[in-house]
Amino acid sequence: MTFQPPQPFTPHTRTSPLTAPWEPIYADVREDRWVLGLEAREAHANSRGGPHGGLIAALADNAMGLSCGVRMRREGLSFNGFVTVSLGVDYLAAPVLGQWLEFDTDFIKPGKSLCYAEATVRADGKPVARARGTFKVV
Fold it and tell me: Any idea where the Acyl-CoA thioesterase-like N-terminal HotDog domain is (predicted)?
């Protein structure tokens, strides 16, 4: 049986060489943010058999950066992209393979030179990490 993401998630269109081995990644593009998601699989595992913290950090960073773009457009602020200046992740619990991981940006504060964001990472709806990012507006 082929995995089906929860509604309204569809295939993520902003792929990159970093995330290519982790596909399929899904997105729920909302009016105010992007929410990313994936089913935790073997390709995402660390040596202990659970989703790697680096995967969690990278996808939280991705979701927050994309969400900053949504917010900047809504506020009429111009930009040509973002560069991560600072990223912090607090790991709250250990997710397991087979769970649905969701990367949801909860807070965005845009500015002309910096954008700040915070995200919650959930495994089957339960928080497993909190992330904070500062992004340089390009």
Answer: 47-135
